[in-house]
UniProtKB/TrEMBL annotation:
Pfam families: Leuk-A4-hydro_C, Peptidase_M1, Peptidase_M1_N
Organism the protein comes from: Odocoileus virginianus (White-tailed deer)
Cofactor(s), by name: Zn(2+)
Listed name of the protein: Aminopeptidase RNPEPL1
Peptidase M1 leukotriene A4 hydrolase/aminopeptidase C-terminal domain span: 531-676
Length: 717
């Protein structure tokens, strides 16, 4: 298609536009250094050039803003040491821009050539004849903020009026950024082309572009991206085009989103339609598998969600499968869910993860938690909606089984952390300097789910509660909320419950749900899943009974190959909880199940292999080696290395790591090196890495030495 024109008519002698009604400032966010409360962010534009050989992103950011009060001295944005700012400039927007957004500006990209790296892109505005000069330079400085970011202070002109539109233009380069993951071709499945993806949750996108990096601030965005020839670029946007004559991709997100949901991926990706408004993107060798597993299913889940919670607001729902280096299972980027390709072999986990991300389209993306201290407002509600969707599409028994599996993990995490752990609160107090990613735990998901489920039970009818959630989304869509917004809306929607003072019931007070540590105050009735959970409990009891030979004979008569994945995973989790087991029990378990489990998916195999490691069962160590030699994903390597290094198998772990480290992403390699370094003595550095190397991203549950195994955490954001 032809390049878009950026020209506009001169404002002339038009009447002054009406001042927009004042909006409340965003909620304070201790994880943001920005001055977001002083400004209204109307739109942001990005000009991005991907430079995979240098592992560098060159960018130009155009922020369209209004000051809430006259004469603000400075604009403060969240940034990161990985960002090198080249310049800052100010541009006064034309009068017409007060009532209508300007057309997207163009960006000029420097031609590649020998010598030093070219500068970042330049914005190109079409100024009206006789207009004042477009831009003037601004002074700026970067100051430390926390270990996950910096503050960027840009001095503004003194005469700036309240509600007067203006633009701040920042040109920068980003290298070694926590949000930007560069992959050499050999770290992809096809080994054909370089690959790059971004991961902004929770506070990483401040290393992608300077921003108000808080979920309290939302705006629309557009982007122009230049990439090497043959590389497909995708973004979390409602519109996308490729301008062939310019060799650039153009994107536009028409709905307001927080900074962490601006996402980009580029690589050897091909599409296949799987429904009327959905397609999958994947490397060519993965595309047939991804298509066959999801064709028709995503539309079924979207339609079920729409029946429950109202229209899907984002147009398309596409999925891109990322290489194993993707640091979490899935991410709900609007219009374009990111999912780790490793999950393709585990059908039931794939179903749950995709439905969870579908649910985020209403809870998390449309209505967002205003601060990370109340992340349960996105995750707890999305988990509840996910289970309503699975009940509609896969039946109550399956939903109850999956819920039992997750609640089992929640209680395991509670036992490890203790009931007085502050992170077990739904309203967590985030101390300054603490990375919000550390709050991504099962309490956010499952305790949040239990509270939402309790609210649904108060009204006596799940369908009436669905009606409430539909009204809640309709009222707050494209905004950010706090818990009081949800609870006030609930009591307004159900005035009879307000009259009964259900928020103050002894022992179940809403305030106690939010601020008490410990397990959920009430849990759901899962009896509809008993046909699937009772066999698991019975088999576990057999293996812990005496005499062993008689119990093993009875257990071997139960054919777990016909079980659902969540049944087998729940059974193995119970055995893991009881480890170390008597050696004769482990020997019998291996004889009964080891070969069978070898043919099952990775979610099951890793659990069996953790049993092998935690019980020092040497006859099956070759299976651990084979598994680690074939895995490049954090979720399937970190738990095993953590278990290997807490027992007597550190030397085995080192040996396997030396043989496989070349196939691991540098961030994962450094994380495993930290795990291996513990207990190896001073100066020991597995793999020869510098002792002060920092991983690009450490989720809270992945930190070496943590007490919580990665398998216990739903790491679908």
């Amino acid at each position: 298609m032809a390049a878009q024109c950026c020209c506009r008519k001169a404002p002339g002698a038009e009447a002054a536009p009406a001042r927009p009604p004042p909006e409340p400032p965003p909620a304070l966010d201790v994880a943001s250094a920005s001055s977001a409360q002083l400004f209204r962010l109307r739109h942001l534009q990005l000009g991005l050039e991907l430079r995979p050989e240098a592992r560098e992103l060159a960018g130009c950011l155009v922020l369209e803003l209004c000051a809430r009060r006259p004469a603000p001295r400075a604009l403060v944005l969240d940034a990161h040491p990985a960002l090198r700012l080249h310049s800052a400039a100010f541009r006064r927007a034309p009068a017409a821009a007060a009532t209508a957004a300007e057309p997207p500006c163009a960006f000029a990209f420097a031609a590649p050539g020998p010598g030093p790296a070219p500068p970042p892109p330049l914005p190109a505005f079409c100024e009206a004849p006789g207009a004042e000069p477009a831009c003037c330079p601004l002074a700026f400085r970067v100051d430390p903020f926390t270990d996950y970011g910096s503050s960027l202070t840009v001095t503004l002109p003194p005469e700036l009026q309240a509600h007067q539109p203006f633009q701040v233009i920042l040109r920068y380069t980003s290298t070694d950024a926590p949000a930007i993951w560069w992959l050499d071709p050999e770290l992809t499945y096809g080994s054909a082309k370089p690959f790059v993806f971004t991961q902004g949750h929770s506070v990483c996108n401040r290393s992608f572009f300077p921003c108000f990096d808080t979920p309290a601030v939302k705006c629309t965005y557009s982007a122009v991206v230049k990439a090497p020839s043959g590389v497909q670029v995708l973004m979390s946007a409602t519109q996308s085009t490729y301008v062939e004559e310019e060799g650039v991709y153009r994107f536009h997100m028409e709905h307001p989103v927080p900074a962490y949901l601006v996402a980009l991926v580029a690589g050897d990706l091909q599409p296949a339609d799987i429904g009327p408004r959905s397609r999958v993107w994947a490397e060519p060798c993965l595309l047939p598998t991804a298509t066959s597993k999801l064709s028709g299913a995503v539309e079924q889940w979207l339609s079920a969600a729409e029946r429950l919670y109202g229209p899907y607001l984002w147009g398309r729902y596409d999925i891109v499968f990322l290489p194993p280096s993707f640091p979490i299972v899935a991410m709900e980027n609007p219009c374009l869910t990111f999912i780790i390709s490793s999950i393709l072999e585990s059908d039931e986990f794939l179903v749950i993860d995709v439905i969870h991300e579908v649910a985020h389209s209403w809870f998390g993306n449309a209505v967002t938690n205003a601060t990370w201290e109340e992340m349960w407002l996105s995750e707890g509600l999305a988990t509840y909606a996910q289970r309503r969707i699975t009940t509609e599409t896969h039946g109550a028994a399956f939903t109850c089984l999956e819920t039992a599996f997750r609640l089992d993990a929640l209680h395991r995490q509670m036992k490890l952390l203790g009931e007085d752990s502050p992170v077990s609160k739904l309203q967590v107090k985030l101390e300054p300097g603490v990375n919000p990613s550390h709050l991504m735990n099962l309490f956010t998901y499952e305790k949040g789910y239990c509270f939402v489920y309790y609210l649904s039970q108060l009204c006596g009818d799940p369908q009436r509660f669905d009606d409430f959630l539909r009204a809640y989304v309709d009222k707050y869509k494209f905004t950010s909320v706090v818990a009081q917004d949800l609870l006030d809306s609930f009591l307004t929607f159900f005035p009879e419950l307000k009259e009964q003072s259900v928020d103050c019931r002894a022992g179940l007070e809403f305030e106690r749900w939010l601020n008490a540590t410990g397990p959920p105050l009430a849990e759901p009735d899962l009896s509809q899943g008993s046909s699937l959970t009772r066999p698991v409990e019975a088999l576990f009891q057999l293996w812990t009974a005496e005499p062993l030979d008689q119990a093993a004979a009875s257990a071997s008569a139960i054919d777990i190959s016909k079980w659902r994945t969540f049944q087998t995973a729940l059974f193995l989790d119970r055995l893991l909880d009881g480890s170390p087991l008597p050696q004769e029990v482990v020997m019998s378990l291996s004889k009964c199940y080891s070969s069978l489990l070898d043919s099952m998916n990775a979610e099951i195999r890793i659990r069996w292999l953790q049993i092998v490691v935690r019980n020092d069962y040497y006859p099956d160590l070759h299976r651990v080696r084979r598994f680690l030699e074939s895995q490049m994903s954090r979720m399937y390597t970190i738990p095993l290395y953590e278990d290997l290094c807490t027992g007597a198998l550190k030397s085995f772990a080192l040996e396997v790591f030396y043989q496989t480290q070349g196939r691991l992403h540098p961030n994962l390699r450094r994380t495993i090196q930290q795990i291996l370094s513990q207990g190896l003595g001073p100066g020991a550095e597995p793999g020869g890495a510098a002792a002060d190397s920092e991983p690009g991203l450490l989720l809270g549950d992945e930190a070496p030495g943590g007490t919580i195994s990665l398998r216990d955490v739903n790491v679908s954001a």
